[in-house]
Write a structure and sequence with these properties.
Layout: E1 2-7, H1 12-22, E2 27-33, H2 42-45, E3 55-56, H3 60-66, E4 69-72, H4 79-88, E5 92-95, H5 105-112, H6 119-124, E6 126-127, H7 130-139, E7 142-144, H8 148-162, E8 172-177, H9 192-195, E9 200-201, H10 209-221, E10 228-233, E11 240-245, H11 255-265, E12 272-274, E13 290-292
Parallel strand pairs: 1-2, 1-4, 2-3, 4-5, 5-7, 6-7, 8-10, 12-13
Antiparallel strand pairs: 8-11, 9-10
Helix pairs in contact: 8-10
Length: about 290
């Protein structure tokens, strides 16, 4: 049984981790960490799960005594402070923020405006997309879990890039996210009165997930890729829909051939479902499934 801790358990990412891990037969949650919510029972914050453990704020050495693996579900910038001492104690760390998604911290600093001095640790991190780096994740001490928009976008693009089927200069991503993607902290633009009945683009040309998507696409292609990514906020609580456009190098490639290519590529990926029809975001609610069509 793997003993797991979650730091930042009271946020939206943290509560989904708790819910999913409670259903995992090989995992025992032994520590819930948080500073602002320390001293509160998890069940008082999320009573619908029917499960509770006190939220604490322990030092790394005490966390290691309880945990083999630690998830960091924290705002950008905080994981880079907590991961090094946890790693030094021998914990395996999975970071849900952007702190360890970039091998080159100059790119991170440019987009996230956070000074960093842990370049060697960042270079050791494995990008946590199992459909691409499953074997590396299995042995990694530090995993930088991918962002929401990058996960949807990359799963759509990877087969085309790896098989050299797409013009790499033609990639356009039109993506839409529910309001929970903005986190649990109150923000005016995410209020029901502001978001309901309205769809709007944001972060055009400067969204922080752009370099993350470009980094992985470039790594897979073996050359630099610059693409167009436009996110939208849509009035629903949860879900991501990414519509990805690109010019196929073979104009004769049809839908049936593409379905065959995608089904073969994701044949060993149990959380990716390749469909013949068009998916809906509601189908993925409460799961870690991704649908492609």
């Amino acid at each position: 049984m793997v003993k797991v801790g979650i730091i930042g358990a009271s946020g939206y990412g943290g509560v989904q981790l708790v819910r999913l891990l409670l259903e995992h037969p090989g995992v025992e949650i032994t520590y819930l960490g948080g500073s602002s919510s320390a001293g509160t029972a998890f069940g008082d914050i999320y009573p619908h799960l029917g499960w509770s453990l006190p939220i604490e704020d322990l030092p790394p050495e005490a966390v290691r005594q309880r945990c083999d693996v630690v998830f960091l579900s924290l705002p950008n910038g905080l994981a880079a402070q907590l991961a090094p001492p946890l790693l030094a104690q021998g914990c395996r760390v999975l970071d849900l923020s952007a702190d360890y998604r970039f091998r080159d911290l100059n790119v991170y600093t440019q987009w996230y405006r956070e000074p960093r001095s842990d370049q060697s640790i960042a270079q050791s991190a494995v990008y946590g997309l199992p459909e691409l780096y499953r074997d590396e994740i299995a042995t990694a001490q530090l995993v930088g879990c991918p962002g929401c928009y990058p996960t949807a976008s990359l799963l759509a693009l990877l087969p085309l890039i790896k098989q050299e089927l797409i013009d790499l200069t033609s990639i356009v991503i039109d993506a839409k996210s529910g309001t929970s993607g903005g986190g649990r902290q109150a923000k005016t633009n995410l209020l029901l009165a502001e978001a309901e009945g309205s769809v709007g683009a944001y972060g055009i040309g400067n969204h922080r997930h752009t370099p993350e998507i470009e980094q992985i696409c470039s790594r897979v292609a073996g050359q630099e890729i610059i693409l167009q990514f436009t996110p939208h906020l849509i009035p629903m609580v949860r879900g991501i829909l990414a519509t990805v456009y690109g010019q196929l190098r073979d104009p004769g490639l049809g839908k049936d051939e593409l379905l065959t290519i995608y089904r073969w590529f994701y044949r060993s990926a149990p959380w990716v479902r390749v469909l013949g029809g068009y998916p809906q975001t509601k189908w993925a609610w409460g799961t870690n499934l991704c649908f492609w069509a």
